[in-house]
Amino acid sequence: MYSNILRHPGPTPIPKKVQLAMSQDIISHRSEEFVKLFRETTNRVKPIFGTKQEILLLPSGGTAALEAAVVNTVSPGEEVVVVSIGAFGDYFVSICEKHGFHAHVLRKPWGEACTSEDLATFLEPLSNIKAVFVTYNETSTGILNPVKELAKVVREKSDALFIVDGVSCIGGVPVKMDQWGIDILVTGSQKAMMLPPGLAFVSVSDRAWKVIEENKTSAYYLNLLSYREWAQKGMTPNTPAITLIYGLSAACDLIEAEGFDQTVARHELMKDMVRAAMKALSIGVLTSDEYASPTITAIMAPEGINLSQFLGHLKKQYHLDFAGGLGELQGKIFRFGHMGYCFPSDILQAISLIEAGLQDFNYSFEPAAGISAAQKVFLEAQKK
Amino acid sequence: MYSNILRHPGPTPIPKKVQLAMSQDIISHRSEEFVKLFRETTNRVKPIFGTKQEILLLPSGGTAALEAAVVNTVSPGEEVVVVSIGAFGDYFVSICEKHGFHAHVLRKPWGEACTSEDLATFLEPLSNIKAVFVTYNETSTGILNPVKELAKVVREKSDALFIVDGVSCIGGVPVKMDQWGIDILVTGSQKAMMLPPGLAFVSVSDRAWKVIEENKTSAYYLNLLSYREWAQKGMTPNTPAITLIYGLSAACDLIEAEGFDQTVARHELMKDMVRAAMKALSIGVLTSDEYASPTITAIMAPEGINLSQFLGHLKKQYHLDFAGGLGELQGKIFRFGHMGYCFPSDILQAISLIEAGLQDFNYSFEPAAGISAAQKVFLEAQKK
To answer: In what residue span(s) does the Aminotransferase class V domain sit (chains A, B) (predicted)?
Structure first.
């Protein structure tokens, strides 16, 4: 009976207006109605990507779009740089290795960002790099890489394409694809875009299109040239995820009504509230303030508490559902997703319930310390 | 205001119960709730496939699943046979060529089936064929290939895997994957399965798994071994199309409530009604009775009528939405989809409106001849 409070870093809750939009009658993907829906909706996504380029919609998960970005630009044997600061950076490495690309991997310890100095130093001795891949928001650690600065380094130090995985943040963070010099930007539907999983977004710079036109990829479903060709007609090469595009249109309504700058500010505020609360409860967070993700916070196990038992208790007793740590961070952190259809009031709710759980586990803290700290950040933001 | 009567061969209308199921709250794809949903739902699809094998669910269109079937079993330079009797067979050829497979193409004129004799003769001089690809239901022409017989020929005449594209028919026609000897069977969500686009289904025989285990495909997102590995845990390698799996569960409710044999009989009946009506109206159909598809009928332009104008008129005036012809059949046929959430009453409605349109175009016919013929077939079926 109790509703599950889903605070994962994706999939995230769906707004009722999006659900209703998705319940509209199916239309043919070769009809004028569809062309109108496709053109209007993809145009509305452009400001969220900070681009004037076409937004290509793939009926797939984000991983497929990442693979598309890779296989359409690089050929087997060619050299690439992959920045990996966590599990999703490693994903990129796996994709590259599977396709026989020679990946130079810039690794940073989980919980740290890749700085522009890191990247500049790493690129220095390399030549003939075809592409540099970076995860904008590393979902496994809650780090937002400084993509704007990294883009600058790539442009200064190489001729490589700069390809960015924006899956777990686009829609909740600022990005200026054209202005910053991102060549391919990818995201998925089920994170800050407030949609169910199953739709991927790809946008490509003129520079990258030139490379793609020369590329001889064998990919069929993930062939970006087909998506471009059909997008010019307001359509997709195969049957698109029509319901999700209806939903996307409704998600754009919501973002436009709030104002995208405000959407970004809301994510920033939620992050600050969570971090202030954890500090007040003497619970560590994995990342420094400087590169902390506005969409997900990795929180350390509270001292003396078995994390797996604690998360199980929060879910069973309070219906509050967090994600655990991945890979080397399993059992050490939990991940609090605060993106998309999530509001400061949801943060207050979740922190109250975390405090309830901490009491059940006899964790020593001043009652309401966390919630008070979060409230304070919230109230200060109202005054601005 | 008028509701659009979508009679395309996919995407098809969505039952309200499916829409409502898809509006449930999103859950984590790594939760016990998801594992239960995934296991229960995929088990319910097995009888529709006629298999005891796992049903793998890809968050993608059917085309991606077809490509997965190809790239996971065949390697560049290897020889395959593709049976192409229309546009979707040609799709398969394109996929094979894109991947550098040597495709021997058995082509039949559009509107004809591939018989077991055709295939036996074609296979005779060939050796070392790795796989034979066949479209079960050719959506561009409305032909249901005799897949049961073709499977037998493949087994007798070669060691090749037999791979079947069931996209536009599975859920509405009989298929016994295990018994007939189909090695890989693929379908999509947006046809007879009564779901929105975005979910693909793949099932694989033990024999094909052995080949896949040896295959060195570079595919990452479409890697079937990953899907199998995760399916054994009741999950998918990446974020699945959760809402569509909720919807699939509701679609299974509907099919089980009707009884799958009855679902198949309903599709057969709808086909017979459409064909009887066209005959009574002296309007041709593209295909012979023997191989006529139970899910889509390709209807010839009524004599003396400009088809494009006629279809535009039906849509504008009567809100009845048919698909036109593809490729060489453009302007010559229209395609009447009768699959999934479509009932004999819908056929009566559509035929009535076709007759209205014919009157508007001064086509000469005995009033109500088509609808009477369809009614007769319908009433006779009630007596059985």
So the answer is: 27-299
Q: Is B44 annotated as a binding residue?
A: no
Over pLDDT 70: what percentage of chain B?
Answer: 100
Query: Region A192-204: what's the mean pLDDT?
Result: 98
Best A14, A243, A246, A342 residue to mutate vs chain B (most B CBs within 10 Å): A243
Q: What is the mean pLDDT of chain B?
A: 97
B chain contacts of residue A26, beta-carbon cutoff 8 Å: 6, 11-14, 190, 196
Cβ–Cβ below 8 Å for A321 and B244: no
> Does residue B9 form part of some domain?
no
Q: Are residues A182 and A225 in the same domain?
A: yes
| CATH at A343 | 3.90.1150.10
ipTM attached to this prediction: 0.95
| Set of chain A residues whose Cβ sits within 8 Å of the Cβ of B64 | 60, 64, 221
Closest residue in A to B97 (Cα) is A218
**Cβ of B125: how many Cβ atoms within 10 Å?**
7
Same domain, residue pair B222 and B115: yes
User: Quick check: A198 and B241 CB within 8 A?
Assistant: yes
Q: Which of B209, B235, B256 is the last residue before a domain boundary?
A: B256
**Residue B384: is its pLDDT beyond 90?**
no
Instruction: List CB contacts (< 8 A) between B63 and chain A.
Output: 220-221, 237-238
Q: Are residues B241 and B271 in the same domain?
A: no
Are A149 and A23 members of one domain? yes
Binary contact (A60, B63; C-beta < 8 A): no
Total tally of structural domains belonging to chain B: 2
How much is the pLDDT for A384? 81
User: How far apart are the CA of B299 and the nearest CA of chain A, in angstroms?
Assistant: 19
Q: Do A243 and B196 touch (CB under 8 A)?
A: yes
Domain identity same for A241 and A369:
no
Nearest-CB residue to B238 (from A4, A61, A76): A61
Per-residue model confidence as pLDDT tens digits over A145-172: 999 999 999 999 999 999 999 999 999 9
| DSSP character string of A196-262 | -S--EEEEE-HHHHHHHHH-----STT-HHHHHHHHTTTS-SS---HHHHHHHHHHHHHHHHH-HHH
Whether residue A246 is found in the same domain as residue A273:
no
Does the distance separating the beta carbons of B98 and A239 come in below 8 Å?
Answer: no
Contacts of A25 in chain B (CB under 8 A): 3-4, 6, 13-14
CB contact under 8 A, B244 and A198: yes
Tell me, yes or no, whether B10 lies in a domain: no
Contact between A220 and B100 using a beta-carbon 8 Å cutoff: no
- Mutation target to probe the A interface, by most A beta carbons within 10 A, among B70, B82, B221, B227 is B221
